[in-house]
Design brief:
The structure is a single chain. The protein has about 750 residues and is mainly alpha-helical. It is built from 31 helices and 8 strands.
């Protein structure tokens, strides 16, 4: 007796089921791919670049001109600030204390000394007063003891001369007198003489530098008092009285020299200024020390330039006092914050435009754009002018054109937060920047006219002005300051829109995106490829025009880019023009070239029109978005007619080769966008509806649902994000459009030929 089959326990049956991988497990498998590692590496490099641009290792400045702090701002660390006033005073003092430079010519003093020595020798050798030059004797005459005293008589003069000659004639006295003169004149020859300081002497009042003209290397610093003739005269008198043989001789020699002392010092203004400049340059900057807790700015008082200088100096000292570890931690924290914002943007892009993340060139372009935007905002940062709004507005409009409004809003918000952290912008500042950018992104739904971007600029300008006035009131700014900010932001919005108008062709090329304006130009029937399609395959051209009309309405029903779908439909079958007679729409009645071909060969001919179309499109430089429609409008669907034909032959002939289904499928890829999926359905139903005997609305609806269901079950819509609800809307739109095309016509009664009216 056969043993009954034992059932497996429930847990074993459940374990035997193969469940699809979860979201996180699938994401983990994606991260293990090499291409994803490259993308993550690029993202990390971008994050490091953003951190470097914003100098994430150091906190930004917290205060700016015109800001009113709510409390007193005190010093966190002890610091010193250059004291300009004290430094200027020190430099002025240094110039005043610098020693002036005088040129000294000792020749005149030496000559005077030599004349006196010669005159004394002449007086000593004279036999009588009569043999002495009267002028020489007069120069040695003693001044009258009192005013009104009569001049000495000749006899008295003879007696005085004889007395003087006796003194000089004694052995060694003349030599002693000469030695005394040399000793007395030596200081005068060394440092020179001047009557008084010249008016232009604006330097040290106690000392001067003396440079002898006869000795270039001589440079001595002397007291000014030693160079004055008045002081030198008194010193000479004392020396003569102490060193000469008699007081009479001392008085006569002093009287001779007193009025003959020459002025040998002359101020050198150029050298003096150089000495003053040198002394001024040696003055170090004077600083004012601020201890910890010093009040740097008073609360409830608008910050002025002086307060900002103090705050900047305190911040520099505080940054210098921070440890390297603190800088590293802040750098890591800022980079992590930027990374978190990138993750948010990535999730939004993955939902709304997956191609940005899957295509490496588009990802590189996106990362470079964000990096350049933050760099431009950093360079243009000015709380007074708010010029950093221009790069952000350009980013918002570029992202709206390239990635759509939702992605543009998220990217603008993330970039604003990055700039706010890096530049130290407050909440109000971030609102002022993000508001106009968000308005521009929302208003820029499509670019069908050249004036669209300017209209967007004026919309953003209005939002910017309103926000600036509101934020100004919240921040406590005066109406004048708030109005100035509003005018500036509105002006930057219009300027950014004007720049975007000029940059639009470049944006389309760099981001590989087509605006409605460029699509309208591309969809011109005069395009060379379309003209060639009309000439070679008129049936395919009419089919493409009809499919374009059907697909445009269907795409519009699900909120897609209807114009893009229409233009893509124009070009989706251009590959058929190379072998037009192999496609039914171009065949005349009874002319079917596939009758002489095997099903597999016919399939190759049919499938080849996709590759041929891509090659033609690339030769004519069509955009990648249009080429995607050519590649994806059949996906990996089965060439069902020839597959069934091959299967039937296999059933009739058992010796025939086995039929491989994959050989009868298009190479793909499957539709990657909703627009491409809509084109796939529209292309299929348009071709199939041509063979309907009686295209009633019910039959059309059944046909559309059948073809859409086949492709849905076949997995053709798995990679485009098309939902079941959207598939239903597309089908409803196609049914309406086809019903309108194949609407019933009134059957007119036959009329007599004689009336000249044909049926």
């Amino acid at each position: 007796m056969a043993q009954p089959t034992q059932k497996r326990p429930r847990k074993h049956r459940v374990a035997a089921l193969e469940l699809p991988p979860g979201k996180w497990r699938a994401m983990g498998s994606e991260l293990r791919r090499g291409s994803v590692v490259v993308r993550l590496s690029l993202v990390v490099l971008t994050l490091l670049g953003l951190a470097a641009i914003t100098r994430a290792w150091r906190p930004p400045a917290e205060f700016h001109a015109g800001q009113t702090p709510l409390r007193n701002l005190t010093a966190r660390v002890e610091f010193k600030q250059p004291d300009d006033k004290a430094t200027d005073e020190a430099r002025d003092l240094a110039r005043r204390l610098a020693t002036a430079v005088y040129e000294h010519d000792p020749a005149r003093v030496t000559q005077l000394k030599a004349r006196v020595v010669n005159e004394l020798s002449e007086l000593a050798s004279a036999e009588s007063l009569d043999t002495v030059d009267p002028e020489i004797w007069a120069s040695y005459a003693l001044p009258p003891p009192a005013e009104g005293t009569p001049a000495p008589t000749p006899e008295q003069e003879q007696e005085q001369f004889a007395k003087l000659r006796t003194v000089l004639s004694e052995a060694g006295q003349l030599d002693a007198a000469q030695a005394t003169l040399g000793e007395a004149f030596a200081p005068l020859e060394r440092h020179g003489l001047m009557v008084r300081l010249p008016p232009e002497h604006e330097a040290n009042q106690k000392q001067i530098q003396v440079r002898r003209v006869d000795s270039p290397g001589f440079d001595a610093t002397v007291e000014i008092s030693e160079t004055l003739v008045e002081n030198a005269t008194r010193q000479l008198q004392r020396t003569f009285e102490q060193k000469l043989p008699s007081l009479d001789l001392a008085a006569r020699v002093f009287n001779r020299i007193r009025t003959a002392l020459p002025e040998t010092l002359k101020l050198d203004p150029i050298a003096t200024r150089a000495e003053q400049d040198r002394a001024e340059a040696e003055v170090v900057t004077q600083y004012k020390v601020f201890p910890v807790g010093s009040v740097l700015a008073t609360g409830s008082k608008m910050l002025d330039e002086a307060s900002l200088k103090l705050l900047d100096a305190e911040r520099s000292a505080w940054l210098h006092a921070r440890s390297s570890w603190e800088s590293v931690l802040r750098f890591v924290a800022a980079t992590a914050l930027y990374g978190a914002l990138f993750v948010v943007v990535a999730f939004v892009l993955r939902r709304h435009d997956r191609g940005v993340l899957s295509r490496l060139p588009r990802l590189v372009t996106l990362l470079a754009t964000v990096l350049l935007t933050v760099a431009a905002m950093t360079l243009a940062n000015s709380r007074e002018w708010r010029a950093e709004a221009i790069p952000l507005l350009l980013l918002a409009m570029t992202a709206a054109v390239a990635y759509g409004r939702i992605n543009a809003l998220v990217m603008s918000a993330a970039t604003t937060l990055i700039a706010s952290v890096g530049l130290g912008l407050g909440t109000y500042d971030a609102v002022l920047l993000l508001g106009p950018a968000s308005a521009a992104a929302i208003a820029l739904d499509s670019v069908r006219t050249r004036s669209k971007l300017l209209i967007v600029g004026f919309v953003a300008a209005g939002v910017a002005a309103a926000l600036a006035l509101c934020v100004g009131q919240l921040a406590g700014l005066s109406l004048l300051d708030a109005t100035q900010t509003a005018v500036r932001l509105a002006l930057w919005s219009v300027i950014a829109a004007s720049l975007m108008t000029c940059l639009l062709p470049l944006v389309e090329r760099v981001f590989d995106v087509q605006t409605d304006l460029s699509l309208l130009e591309l969809g011109d029937p005069a395009h060379p490829l379309l003209q060639e399609l009309v000439r070679r395959a008129p049936g395919t051209y009419n089919h493409s025009i009809t499919v374009a009309s059907l697909a445009e309405a269907a795409t519009e029903s699900i909120g897609g880019r209807a114009l893009l779908t229409r233009v893509g439909a124009y070009f989706h079958d251009i590959g058929k023009m190379l072998k037009p007679q192999y496609f039914v729409e171009n065949q005349s009645r009874g002319d079917n070239r596939h009758q002489s071909l095997a099903p597999a060969m016919s399939t190759l001919v049919i499938i080849a029109h996709v590759k041929d179309g891509v090659d033609l499109a690339r030769q004519h430089h069509l955009p990648e978005r249009i080429i995607d429609f050519i590649q994806q409008h059949h996906g990996t669907t089965l060439v069902e007619y020839f597959y069934r034909q091959a299967s039937s032959r296999k059933e009739a002939d058992e010796n025939a080769a086995a039929v491989d289904e994959s050989a009868f499928r298009y190479p793909g890829p499957r539709p990657q966008t909703k627009e491409a999926a809509v084109l796939m359905i529209a292309d299929a139903v348009e071709s199939a509806s041509r063979v309907l005997v009686e295209p009633t609305p019910a039959r059309i609806e059944s046909l559309v649902e059948e073809l859409a269901h086949k492709r849905l079950v076949d997995g053709q819509f798995d990679e485009c994000g098309l939902t079941l609800q959207e598939v239903s809307r597309v089908c409803d739109s196609l049914v309406k459009s086809l019903t309108a095309v194949y609407h019933g016509r009134v059957k007119y009664p036959e009329q007599e030929p004689s009336k000249g009216v044909s049926a």
